[in-house]
Amino acid sequence: MSVIVAGLASPWVLLLVLPTLVGFAWGCRVFLASSRTLKRLDGTTRSPIFAHFSVLFSGLSTIRAYNKQEMMLNGALDMVDVNTRVCLIFEAISRWLGFTVDLIVTLLVFSTALLCVYLSGSGGAVGLALSYMTMLSAGLQWAVRLSAELESHMTSVERILEYKNLPPEGHPGRIQPPQEWPTTGKMEFKHLRARYREHLEDVLNGINISIPSCQKIGRTGSGKSSLFLTMFRLLEPYQGHIELDGVNCSDLRLSDLRAKLSIIPQEPVLFTETLRYNIDPMHLYTDQQIMDVLSIVQLDDMVREQLPDGLDTHMAEQGSNFSVGESQLICVARALLHSSKILLVDEATSSVDPLTDLLIQKVLREKFKDRTVLTIAHRLQTILDCDKILVLSSGKVVEFDAPKILLSKNPNVDPTAVFALMYREAQKHNKHS
C-alpha cells in the first residue's frame, strides 16, 4: 500500500520497486532458511532440559542419597547453555534481518529523494512519497517474521497430515470369531519367528510349543517380553503363527484379539479418569460386580470408607493418589472383572510390599485357576508353583517342563540344565545380599 501511494504521488518511485524487491527477496530467503534450522535446533535442545528436570524431580531422594546434586545441577546448566546459544543465534539473525530491511528501505528513500530532486516534482508529492517510503521498514520486517512463524507452525500441520495418512494398523481380519471364543484357553505357538526390523536378528526363533487350557506357565530368559508382544500383535511374526482355541490369531482383527486377552503389567497402568473407568473402561458391568472384584483384592472397604465419591473418585495422573500396591491391586481387579481365558502377568509383584505380594499371589492361584496364565519371571521364586516353565535363550526354546523336573537336572553334568543353573545362581545371589 505504501508503494502504491508513493507511486501515485511520484511515478518515478515505481522505477525503484524492482531492485528493492530483489534485495528484499534475497534477505527473506536467507532469514527463512536459517530460521527453519534454528527452530529445529531449539526444539532438539529444549526437549532434553524438560526430560532432565523430570528425571531430577522423580529421583530427588536418590540424588540426595548419593550426593549427586552438583552433578545433576551441572548437567542441567550445560543443557540450558546449549539451548541459550541457539536462542542467541536466532536473536542475532533477527537483528540481521532488521538491519538488512532498514538498509534496503534507507537506500530506497535516498534514491526516491534523488529522483524527486533531479526530476523536479512538486513539494507536496515529494513529501508524501518520502513519508510513505519510510513506513516500509516495519511492514517488511513484520511480513518476513510472519512468514517464518507460519512455516514453523505448519510443521505441526505436516506431522498431523503424516499421521493421518499412515496405513491402518493391521489388516481388517479375515475371520470373525464366535462371541464366546475362546472357551478353553488352549494356546499353540507354531514355528513362530519374529524380529523388530528386517535387517535385525530374530528375537523369537522357531518357537514351537503347545500350552493346554488352564495351565500356569512361567517364562524366563531372553525373548520372554517379545513373546507377549507377539500375542498382542504389537510385534507381527513374519513366519509361523499363534493359535488360540484352534483360531489363527493373525487372521483376527486386532480389536477382536486384544479384547480376549488380559494383562497385569509390571508397572500399574491407570488413566486419569474415575476408579470405575479404570476397572471397567467399556462400562459393561454393574457397580455391584465391580465391588465384588474389589472385595476379592481387599479394596472394597477402602472404597466405601476412605473415598467419599466411591467408584466415581477421580484418579490423578498415573494414579498418584493411590499407593503402588493399591494401583497394582486395581489392575488385578480389572483382570478379574474382564474374565478372559488368557491372562498375561509381567512380574506383577516386583514393586509392591510383601503383604500385597502375598495377596496378589493368592488371588492368582485361587481366582485364575480356570484360566491359562502366562507369567514373565524376573524373580524365579515366583514361578516355581507353575505347571510348567518355559526357558528361552536368544529367542529359542531351551527348556519347557515342570519345575521339579527342571530343578532335578544337574547343570554340572547336563549342559541343557539352564533353569537349574539360573536358580542356583539366584540362590547364591540372595545369600550374599
Automatic annotation (TrEMBL):
<dbReference type="GO" id="GO:0016887">
    <property type="term" value="F:ATP hydrolysis activity"/>
</dbReference>
<keyword id="KW-0812">Transmembrane</keyword>
<dbReference type="InterPro" id="IPR044726">
    <property type="entry name" value="ABCC_6TM_D2"/>
</dbReference>
<dbReference type="InterPro" id="IPR017871">
    <property type="entry name" value="ABC_transporter-like_CS"/>
</dbReference>
<dbReference type="GO" id="GO:0140359">
    <property type="term" value="F:ABC-type transporter activity"/>
</dbReference>
<dbReference type="GO" id="GO:0016020">
    <property type="term" value="C:membrane"/>
</dbReference>
<feature type="domain" description="ABC transporter">
    <location>
        <begin position="187"/>
        <end position="419"/>
    </location>
</feature>
<keyword id="KW-0472">Membrane</keyword>
<dbReference type="GO" id="GO:0005524">
    <property type="term" value="F:ATP binding"/>
</dbReference>
<keyword id="KW-1133">Transmembrane helix</keyword>
<dbReference type="InterPro" id="IPR011527">
    <property type="entry name" value="ABC1_TM_dom"/>
</dbReference>
<dbReference type="Pfam" id="PF00005">
    <property type="entry name" value="ABC_tran"/>
</dbReference>
<dbReference type="InterPro" id="IPR050173">
    <property type="entry name" value="ABC_transporter_C-like"/>
</dbReference>
<protein>
    <submittedName>
        <fullName>Uncharacterized protein</fullName>
    </submittedName>
</protein>
<comment type="similarity">
    <text>Belongs to the ABC transporter superfamily. ABCC family. Conjugate transporter (TC 3.A.1.208) subfamily.</text>
</comment>
<dbReference type="InterPro" id="IPR027417">
    <property type="entry name" value="P-loop_NTPase"/>
</dbReference>
<keyword id="KW-0067">ATP-binding</keyword>
<keyword id="KW-0813">Transport</keyword>
<feature type="domain" description="ABC transmembrane type-1">
    <location>
        <begin position="1"/>
        <end position="152"/>
    </location>
</feature>
<dbReference type="InterPro" id="IPR003593">
    <property type="entry name" value="AAA+_ATPase"/>
</dbReference>
<dbReference type="InterPro" id="IPR036640">
    <property type="entry name" value="ABC1_TM_sf"/>
</dbReference>
<keyword id="KW-0547">Nucleotide-binding</keyword>
<dbReference type="InterPro" id="IPR003439">
    <property type="entry name" value="ABC_transporter-like_ATP-bd"/>
</dbReference>
<dbReference type="Pfam" id="PF00664">
    <property type="entry name" value="ABC_membrane"/>
</dbReference>
<feature type="transmembrane region" description="Helical">
    <location>
        <begin position="96"/>
        <end position="120"/>
    </location>
</feature>
